[in-house]
């Protein structure tokens, strides 16, 4: 059957909170990739100016890793919807990399159009870490302007956004621009070894894959008197599906991406799912669910079984199990193992996958090799979106259904006084597919 692809340690959340600035930003933490280190043995090449869009914990962490990846990188500009977020991030970065933080006042951009001003400020590389609802427009603008990009996952929250990202990725390839996504598990040495063996046939023909990611509650920011409705939603973007895509898209896509990886980038034919709100019943949790269960159907009767929840008080798990005709492959925590005919257990080097993403990006830029994660990131994001569609509607959704969907979750334009409620909380069997 023809392939249905679109085109033929923990998440970085809480990065700043989990460790002190001294530990995070010490000079000794710099990890230089071998190829890149060798390229600097002679004359230092052109200084690269980096711009950061989205100055929360995720973005601040990405800026640190960009600076660690290449000794001739400076942070040149910063942009965020909120001045306090930008200022807090800037102060942390200055304490850590003082002389390499050259973000003068005139290159500190605030507001909905801040990303445009940053892109026009003379940067060479753009780091995109705003809420994913903004990602398609931000990525498109950066590629149109000829910038290299690191962009966090997911790449969009709806199918029109995914299609926009695919167009940007095509342009990046034509321009030989480097485009690295935040699907960080792809850059983890343990998983590269495990999935490499699976793809080489170590467990035979894959029959099914199960993936589970269960955890507790996340952050929430109480409303302040001076906040407009729009600011309140943006400050709590995770709970608005027009900004986050719901947590199946924002978080669980890592697990879906590992399924895609194990299957050699083959896309599902369809998905049937369920989900709802058992814990997040308060209005403050916006319109997202707190649990999902999905069955993805592939050619040759291969199944992908997925379960994820974010509910306080339950057990936690983050694991993938791949069942094959010759054995099984497992990932859970530090376990990366194959059982059966070709038993194997990983015992090699353990790397910082977040840092390795940026090492790969800057090595690619220096070598002019144009690394491009565009199709990969779009496919995995759409897997999350189609799973959400199936759970929200209670219907079986095909890949073509999802890819061609016309549903746009967010507003046409943004304004601080805009009254935008977002989609209603979905009711399976009642909510319609668009």
Give a topology summary:
Blueprint: H1 15-18, H2 21-24, H3 34-39, E1 48-53, H4 57-69, E2 73-80, H5 83-97, E3 108-110, H6 114-119, E4 125-128, H7 135-144, E5 148-151, H8 159-175, E6 179-181, H9 189-199, E7 206-215, H10 229-235, H11 241-244, H12 247-250, H13 253-262, E8 270-276, E9 291-297, E10 303-310, E11 317-324, E12 327-332, E13 335-340, E14 344-345, H14 353-367, H15 374-393, E15 397-398, H16 399-403
Parallel strand pairs: 1-2, 1-4, 2-3, 4-5, 5-6, 7-10
Antiparallel strand pairs: 7-11, 8-9, 8-15, 9-10, 11-12, 12-13, 13-14
Key terms:
nine-stranded mixed sheet, 35% helix, nucleotide binding, 434 residues, alpha/beta, Dihydrodipicolinate Reductase, domain 2, six-stranded parallel sheet, Rossmann fold
Shape: globular
Task: Summarize model confidence as the mean pLDDT.
Answer: 90
Strand order, biggest sheet?
14-13-12-11-7-10-9-8-15
Rg (CA only)? 21 Å
Number of distinct helices:
16
Number of domains: 2
Strand count, sense and closure of the main sheet? Answer: 9 strands, mixed
Record field, number of beta strands: 15
CATH hierarchy class name of the largest domain: Alpha Beta
Low-confidence stretches: 1-44
Annotated CATH homologous superfamily of the largest domain: Dihydrodipicolinate Reductase, domain 2
- Which architecture of the largest domain per CATH? 2-Layer Sandwich
Portion of residues within helices: 25-40%
CATH topology of the largest domain: Dihydrodipicolinate Reductase, domain 2
Domain GFO/IDH/MocA-like oxidoreductase: 198-328
Organism: Zobellia amurskyensis
Pfam families: GFO_IDH_MocA, GFO_IDH_MocA_C3
Domain Gfo/Idh/MocA-like oxidoreductase N-terminal: 48-175
């Amino acid at each position: 059957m023809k392939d249905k692809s679109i085109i033929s340690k923990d998440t970085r959340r809480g990065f700043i909170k989990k460790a002190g600035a001294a530990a995070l930003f010490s000079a000794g933490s710099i990890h230089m990739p071998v190829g890149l280190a060798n390229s600097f043995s002679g004359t230092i090449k052109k200084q690269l100016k980096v711009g950061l869009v989205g100055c929360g914990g995720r973005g601040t962490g990405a800026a640190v890793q960009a600076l660690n990846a290449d000794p001739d990188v400076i942070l040149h500009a910063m942009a965020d919807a909120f001045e306090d977020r930008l200022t807090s991030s800037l102060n942390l970065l200055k304490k850590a990399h003082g002389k390499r933080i050259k973000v003068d006042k005139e290159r500190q951009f605030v507001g909905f159009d801040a990303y445009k001003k940053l892109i026009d400020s003379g940067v060479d590389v753009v780091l995109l870490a705003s809420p994913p609802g903004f990602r398609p427009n931000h990525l498109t603008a950066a590629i149109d302007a000829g910038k290299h990009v690191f962009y966090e996952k997911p790449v969009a929250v709806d199918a029109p956004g995914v299609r926009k990202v695919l167009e940007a990725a095509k342009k990046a390839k034509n321009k030989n621009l480097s485009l690295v996504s935040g699907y960080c598990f792809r850059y983890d040495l343990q998983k590269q070894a495990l999935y490499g063996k699976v793809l080489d046939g170590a467990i035979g023909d894959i029959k099914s894959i199960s993936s589970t990611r269960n955890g507790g509650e996340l952050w929430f920011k109480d409303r302040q008197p001076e906040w407009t409705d729009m600011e309140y939603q943006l400050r709590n973007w995770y709970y608005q599906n027009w900004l986050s895509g719901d947590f199946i898209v924002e978080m669980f896509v890592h697990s879906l991406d590992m399924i895609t990886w194990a299957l050699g980038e083959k896309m599902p034919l369809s998905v049937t799912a369920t989900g709802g709100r058992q814990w997040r019943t308060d209005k403050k949790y916006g319109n997202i669910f707190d649990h999902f269960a999905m069955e993805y159907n592939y050619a040759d009767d291969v199944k992908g079984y997925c379960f994820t929840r974010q509910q306080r008080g339950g057990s936690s798990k983050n694991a993938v199990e791949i069942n094959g005709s010759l054995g099984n492959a497992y990932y859970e925590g530090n376990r990366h193992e194959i059982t059966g005919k070709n038993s194997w257990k990983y015992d090699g080097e353990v790397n910082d996958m977040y840092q390795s993403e940026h090492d790969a990006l800057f090595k690619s830029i220096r070598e002019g090799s144009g690394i491009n994660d565009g199709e990969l990131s779009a496919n995995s994001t759409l897997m999350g979106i189609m799973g959400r569609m199936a759970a929200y509607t209670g219907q079986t959704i095909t890949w073509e259904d999802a890819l061609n969907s016309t549903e746009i979750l967010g507003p046409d334009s943004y304004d601080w006084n805009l009254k935008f409620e977002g989609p209603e909380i979905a009711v399976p069997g009642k909510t319609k597919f668009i």
